[in-house]
From TrEMBL:
GO terms for molecular function: endopeptidase activity; serine-type peptidase activity. InterPro entries: ClpP/crotonase-like_dom_sf, PDZ, PDZ_sf, Peptidase_S41A, Tail-specific_protease. The lineage of its organism: Bacteria, Pseudomonadati, Bacteroidota, Flavobacteriia, Flavobacteriales. This is Carboxyl-terminal processing protease. PROSITE patterns: PDZ (PS50106). Residues 80-172 form the PDZ domain. Signal peptide: none annotated. GO terms for cellular component: outer membrane-bounded periplasmic space. Belongs to the peptidase S41A family. SUPFAM superfamilies: ClpP/crotonase, PDZ domain-like. NCBIfam families: prc. Keywords: Hydrolase, Protease, Serine protease.
Length: 523
């Protein structure tokens, strides 16, 4: 069961800031955590005991301890973090690449739980649930007209692997109510959104994070594209905040030739580990493009740095986030854990791409807004890195360290007449929720259309634009929407395609106006 009651994406792998901080770039192998008994620890334990025994009011000392741990880690670096017991399972599910549930995306539509999509191959899909179904009861508990919180709904629908979920469902298309028994099971959380051909010779693979299942998903996609005769590949790492180190290395290995360096790590003792490519690469001699932006971090930067420093491919986009610290997950014995920075990583040329954090967490977290203010996201000339941080690729090209990967080919955000703001608006839940409600009015007819027929219908019937415009204005937006009509209709079609079809259809549509793809096609 999805824990979000909005549609895209399934997990806010959206939440990019959280993905960068929580996902980061870390080893998945936790080690027992131990701290040497010393005066400071004795003092802290004594204080907690005194609060429990003597303080005038009842206090949740667990919350105090959690706060203390967070405050300690905040003094170290921005990516050493604490994961509380309540957060741990969800975080682990994201990185494992699956969760146990019934497997649906849903909205609360007029205080009724409406299925947006059953996840392909998941328990609800196998049990026959369809988009548009309303779940009225779960385990004989009424869900409609109850103003239930999202957590309450999730708690009713989740359960152990193999357990039964008894639901009463109303299907609008047949005007019938029926009971269905769903066997809860593992629901995959894809980290590879799509692997498609975007023209006769070019493959495109989009990765949203680096989890346990990422490399098998990537390999399956790449092998499929190779069987279709691709001559070049676009690997899209935009908005990818990182994750596990191992799949990033495995993917880089598929692009590099034997013994080419992928990454170097250096720990507290100065021990250096150099990871080199094997002889098993699947895609070592064809044209390669890597797409990055300001939210591509950590493991994404490992791949981009390895490709750039070995002069293996072309990095396209905007300067990446700048995270060059390695975390290890360590368990605290009560269901919680810390991810502690234990090493730094360096690209093959020897550069650290970690941006400075000595001025404090607030300044560190303001980096993206500072890039907006400086104009860096709109002009490559606004990128300023120290000349002292120059390095050379294997082919002798100059590259820079000290704050992310600077692309070989810069592609700015669209800033003409607020086009970037329109694009962001059209990808929000405000629009996706509206589209779901509109689809419900004519679902049976729309589901009979191909994606091409659907797009023609929306472009040719002014009702679709005018109704959306009225909805956005009623929501308080003050944009001159007529000025952006062409773009709005394009992204409106994209949302209809996303909800009615699959991810492949969505990406086939959306990349038609993707500035980075357009740039590559012109090269």
């Amino acid at each position: 069961m999805s824990k979000k009651n909005y549609l895209w994406p399934l997990l806010t792998m959206g939440s990019l800031a959280a993905g960068i901080v929580l996902g980061g770039f870390f080893s998945k192998n936790g080690l027992p955590f131990s701290v040497k008994e010393d005066r400071g620890r004795v003092k802290l334990n004594k204080l907690i005991d005194l609060i429990e025994q003597e303080y005038v009011d009842n206090v949740n000392t667990d919350s105090i301890i959690d706060m203390t741990v967070n405050n300690i880690l905040a003094q170290l670096d921005p990516h050493s973090i604490y994961i509380s017991k309540s957060e741990f399972d969800e975080v682990q599910n994201v990185m494992k690449g699956s969760f146990v549930g019934i497997g649906i995306n849903y909205y609360m539509l007029n205080d009724t739980l409406a299925v947006v999509k059953p996840l392909p191959g998941g328990p609800s899909d196998k049990a026959g649930l369809k988009a548009g179904d309303r779940i009225l009861y779960a385990e004989k508990v009424q869900l409609f007209d109850q103003k239930l919180s999202n957590d309450s709904i999730v708690n009713l629908l989740k359960g152990s692997n193999g357990s039964k979920a008894l639901l009463k469902v109303y299907r609008k298309s047949t005007n019938k109510t029926f009971n269905v028994e769903i066997i809860r099971g593992e629901v995959p959380l894809k980290s590879v959104d799509t692997a498609i051909k975007i023209d006769e010779k070019t493959g495109y693979i989009k990765i949203n994070r680096f989890a346990e299942t990422t490399y098998p998903e990537f390999k399956t996609g790449l092998e499929s594209l190779l069987s279709q005769g691709i001559e070049e590949l676009v690997l899209d790492l935009r908005e990818n905040g990182g994750g596990y180190m191992e799949p990033a290395i495995q993917i880089a290995d598929d692009f590099l030739k034997t013994n080419e360096v992928i990454v170097k790590t250096v720990n507290k003792k100065g021990n250096v580990k150099v990871t080199k490519a094997s002889s098993k690469g699947l895609f070592t001699d064809k044209k390669l493009y890597i797409l990055i932006n300001e939210n591509s971090a950590s493991a994404s930067e490992i791949i981009a740095g390895a490709i750039q420093d070995n002069d293996r491919g072309i990095i396209v986009g905007r300067r990446s986030y700048g995270k060059g610290l390695v975390q290890r997950e360590m368990y605290l014995g009560d269901g919680s854990a810390v991810r502690l920075t234990t090493a730094r990583y360096y690209t093959p040329s020897g550069r650290s791409i970690q941006k400075p954090y000595t001025n404090g967490l607030d300044e560190y977290n303001s980096d993206l807004s500072n890039r907006f203010k400086s104009g860096e996201l709109y002009s490559k000339d606004s990128i300023h890195l120290a000349d002292s941080l120059k390095f050379k690729t294997t082919g002798g090209r100059i590259v820079f360290g000290g704050g992310g990967i600077v692309p070989d080919v810069f592609v700015p955000l669209k800033n003409k007449h607020g086009e970037d703001a329109i694009q962001l608006l059209m990808k929000t839940s405000l629009v996706s929720y509206y589209v779901f409600e509109e689809i419900e009015k004519e679902r049976a007819a729309l589901e009979q259309l191909t994606a091409t027929e659907l797009s023609e219908k929306i472009y040719n019937d002014p009702k679709y634009f005018n109704d959306l415009k009225a909805h956005l204005k009623a929501s308080g937006l003050t944009f001159n929407l007529d000025r952006h009509k062409k773009n709005i209709i394009f992204y409106l079609v994209a949302e209809y395609v996303h909800q009615l079809y699959d991810d492949n259809a969505y990406y086939h549509w959306i990349i038609q106006q993707d500035p980075m793809i357009v740039k590559i096609e012109s090269m």
